[in-house]
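WARN retry 2 of 3 for item q-0093 after timeout on previous attempt; input resubmitted unchanged.
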Amino acid sequence: QSYWGKNCVQQLGERKLITGYPDGSFRPEATVTRAEAAVLMLNAFPDAPVKRNAIIYKDVPANYWAAKAISTASQKGFFSGYPGGLFQPNQPIPRAQIIGVIAGAKNYSRVSNPQQTLQQYFDDAGQIPNYAQQAIAQAAINSIVVNYPQIKQLKPQQRATRGEVAALICRAL
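OK item q-0093 returned
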């Protein structure tokens, strides 16, 4: 009841975009894996168009619980794999990555100088990986980035929590 992102968690739950656990808990501080993020993205952006052919990832067996979601999320351009044909479905998703994925789904306009923009918004802008700078700058300008309680600290390499991802998706929608 006292969780800072409670309203977003409740809104997404009411819209059937996220679910809790069988015991009735949500566990907002638990981390989100790349596989879970793929499922969440498909729930949040079901009408996103297919942008590329299916990718077969070496580390996602056909019988893996999220195999179809990972394949579809890749086809829609939400995710790219890692070198060597890997997806790393059980890897906790870093904040920079999930923010970039959500910003990509929104198709925001490009930012002319992302590094300058990031330095205006975040004290730790230098820690944002190159691959995510454009998308995070777009997300920041469009007010979907959620940094609680320190709004100037993006913590891009930190694992994203369930509550943070819910708040990001809530803001994006």
